[in-house]
Amino acid sequence: MMQRRDVLKGGLAVAGAGLLAGSWPAMAQSAGSTDYRALVCVFLFGGNDANNMVVPLDETRHASYRRARPALALERSALVPLGDSGYGAHPAMAALRPLFEAGRAAVVANVGPLMVPTTAAQVRARSVPLPSHLYSHSDQQLTWQSALADAPGRNGWAGRFLERLVAEGVTNRGYSALSLAGSNLWQSGDRGLVPYRVSSSGDFGFDFFDPGGTDPLSVAVNSLLRETQVDPFAHTWVQMMTRSIDNQRILSDALSASALATPFPGSGLGRQLQMAARLIGARDRLGLKRQCFFTSLGGFDTHGDDQLQRQNELLGELAAAMAAFQAAMAELGVEREVTLFTASDFGRTLATNGQGTDHGWGAHQWVLGGSVRGARVVGRFPELAVGSADDVGQGVWVPSLAVDQLAGELGRWFCADETLLDDVLPRLRHFDRRIDLMTQT
After folding, report:
1. Is the overall model pTM greater than 0.90, yes or no?
2. For domain 38-205+263-430, is the CATH number 3.40.720?
3. Average pLDDT of 131-160?
């Protein structure tokens, strides 16, 4: 016989994952609106070596790059030319070339956390404030996700945007922040919003429960849900369980009519982005106009490892999954309504430590979508030479664009006005507000 303590212990962790979404007060919102926007973050955990992800093709600049990292430099002939931009992508990322050349993808050059516009000379002179805990994996992950270089770790810029753009009373508001990669700061707001975690398999945690079932577990759960609970712990648990069951039903019902013909790779990131695409396909059933999705790919911390082989595998997985996702957006007819971008802890040094590289600062990122001003490298590419004007040591690039500027450009496309941008991104006022990355219609 199923015991009360077994049900409580077995269901508590699963119920906790569903706490948020059912807790928002209900208010009608029309579904099927064309005014839909979604941001999708692909976070590359470990610090991607962007110096090998996008490389200059001209002979002079490529020769400088080769001199700086003889053991890791990619041959010019191996690079995948990106249109007439003058740059080539890592050969494992060939799947993104058609998107770039069709104007649906761009590279944002040398972006990273900054307090104010900063040069390498100012860093050496210690004449400007710097972000806290540079070169630390955990701290820089929080800084990227918060866009709060002076106080990372409090909340995320996507969460702050959602809290201001999705009214508190909107039905299913909790599903505006959906994570396919566990908890994260990027989707956590400063007014209580936290991401709702979804398995890439589509398992929302209560697939075992049948409200009308006669199996022992379903009978035991139903019995508990009907009881009046005096104990505060049990009362809270029943509330959480009820919300989680509601979440299971809402999302399962929404996904039941969201099928995709687009094939996705069976990799971890491929499965995450496939589920994100299916959830976007269910947008009308959920009735939301603004959503953010968090996905991730790990393994980029390539100290002294065989970086060439490892990065070849990782960037191949990344490009294949991103290309499939963009094809799915075309299938759904929402290419212009969905923008995907990459982010990472930091870049890595141009100089090598053998077969790997050390922690850096600025790095390049990809942005995909039908509203991207694509076929371009946006921003200023660093001079690929140790000791250059962009280098603060061993080829660590001082970012020429701040995370705030990238977040601001995406936020403006997300329909934030200038007042809201200053509220969500308090340091944006120190930088050029527009980087000409996105169309605004």
Report:
1. no
2. yes
3. 95
